[in-house]
Design goal:
Elements: E1 2-5, H1 16-24, E2 28-34, H2 36-41, H3 46-64, E3 70-74, H4 81-92, E4 96-100, H5 105-120, E5 124-128, H6 150-164, H7 205-218, H8 223-226, H9 239-243, H10 249-258, H11 269-286, H12 298-301, H13 310-318, H14 324-336, H15 341-354, H16 359-369, H17 375-385, H18 401-408, H19 413-418, H20 448-459
Parallel strand pairs: 1-2, 1-4, 2-3, 4-5
Length: 462
């Protein structure tokens, strides 16, 4: 019998652990480990965990149709997984534990301990790269070192893709009956969850699949032209599904490739987003200090004096800075658990450069509130915003929240949707700091020119 350990890989297809179990021809049992202490330490958000739970319950039904019951281990902490899994293996008479690898340091240490426990007990342990298309360590510079900048990494990644592109297996036949009964998934996961908007983020496999095909067939071709406009439905909104593994990047590139008659898809803008996700995971493995929230470029951060600015940080968190594009973006996050990618850069720059707040506070807030909270990508994005990450751009890149708003939401549609007070004033005035103050919106908490000057001085010190 095989025991399949699910984490953030909540899908049946393009799942190497399930594929391996099917190859053996033996019965299989699935298991999840609930680790609320570790989730708390990792700033997992209640909305994301509610989304994860909803997808897990749906997956449980899909697994049971294949004669794969789901066991639930409430263990508390990552360090408790090894002993709990070993005991379950022995109780079931299972001989092999199968899982897909995760790449943050604590997860890798957890898996190393589990593997050691299995080996010591004479049990099998196999893990697979189901979360990445190209495994860490396989994309190197000409000198055999790890890439530190995205653009050359992406070129090398594309050149290497043919070596790792593989067929997707769909599990169609039921497994042999194991005689094991499923456990019920706790409502709160032993911790706390917030029910997600099922209309906005469905968890049914067919609806997820339809969302993938709808984007690739209808909107991917225009992605480069529309991706930066938050009032336009120009992005895929598939990031939450990638985060919990309801879809895999391999599935996405197969759908993308099948949409084209030639190799032009390899140069597409949307493929870049998949490669960025891979890049940040490769960095976590190659540079372990990143897992401890250390800057990728410590020489840059050494010049910065982060400000003690709790009032500014609180205003930013609540979407009450008086800068409409920043506030509208934060309102979108607070209400939906998602934020448009262009606006993530705008609010990140505003917090770190203009308010002078340590990027780690923004990183934590996003982890706690995003439905697509993903540690590698979130960490990379925040270091990018603070100019302390793996980024070729200079420190003086500071997003002007006024011109960003005017350029990417010219008619103020996005602003008026999330800040309805602004619908009462002319579109051109909606972008200005303090817009809508007569209807209750706040005055700006900073003077932009002065804040920009301070930021440049801080980053350029020394």
């Amino acid at each position: 019998m095989n025991l399949i350990w699910f984490r953030n890989d909540l899908r049946l297809h393009a799942n190497p652990a399930i594929d391996r179990a099917a190859e053996t021809g033996e019965p299989a049992v699935a298991v999840v480990c609930l680790t609320p202490q570790s989730w708390s330490e990792h700033d997992e958000g209640v909305l994301r965990m509610g989304f994860w739970r909803a997808r897990l319950v749906t997956l449980q039904s899909e697994l049971e149709q294949l004669n794969i019951p789901l066991k639930v281990l409430e263990v508390g902490h990552f360090k408790d997984c090894a002993d709990a899994l070993r005991k379950l293996m022995q109780e079931l008479g299972a001989i092999r534990l199968l899982c897909n690898q995760e790449y943050p340091l604590n997860e890798r240490l957890r898996d190393r301990a589990v593997e050691q426990a299995m080996r010591s007990a004479g049990l099998g342990f196999e893990s697979f790269h189901g979360e990445l298309i190209i495994p860490p360590g396989e994309v190197k510079t000409g000198q055999g070192t790890d890439f530190k900048v995205y653009t050359p990494f992406s070129r090398a990644w594309r050149r290497q893709l043919h070596r790792f592109d593989r067929p997707i297996r769909a599990v169609k036949e039921a497994f042999s009956t194991s005689g094991v009964s499923s456990d019920e998934v706790p409502e709160d996961l032993g911790w706390q969850v917030l029910k997600h908007d099922a209309q906005l983020w469905p968890v049914d496999s067919e609806k997820i699949r339809a969302r993938v095909y709808d984007f690739v067939e209808q909107r991917e071709a225009d992605y480069a032209q529309k991706r930066d406009f938050p009032a336009v439905d120009g992005t895929s909104k598939l990031s939450p599904y990638l985060t919990i593994g309801a879809v895999s990047p391999l599935q996405l590139i197969h759908v993308l490739r099948n949409q084209y008659r030639d190799e032009s898809w390899l140069e597409g803008s949307w493929l870049n987003e998949i490669i960025w996700r891979e890049f940040y995971r490769h960095l976590l493995v190659a540079f372990p200090e990143l897992n401890k929230l250390e800057p990728f470029r410590p020489e840059t951060e050494a010049r910065i004096t982060w400000l003690d600015n709790p009032e500014g940080f609180d205003a930013w968190c609540q979407g009450e800075t008086g800068f409409p594009i920043v506030d509208a973006a934060m309102k979108q996050l607070l209400e939906t658990g998602w934020m448009h990618n262009r606006l993530r850069m705008v609010v990140g720059s505003f917090l770190t450069k203009l308010l002078g707040v340590d990027w780690r506070l923004g990183e934590k807030f996003f982890m706690q509130h995003l439905i697509d909270a993903d540690f590698p990508s979130n960490l990379g994005g925040w270091q990018w915003s603070a100019s302390t990450g793996a980024d070729a751009a200079p420190y003086f890149r500071i997003f002007n929240p006024i011109t960003q708003s005017q350029k990417f939401d010219a008619q103020g549609e996005f602003l008026a949707h999330w800040l309805p007070e602004l619908a009462q004033i002319p579109a051109k005035q909606r972008h200005l700091p303090g817009a809508g103050a007569q209807f209750g919106r706040p005055q700006p908490i900073i003077d932009y020119p002065s804040a920009r000057k301070r930021a440049l001085g801080s980053y350029n010190s020394g």
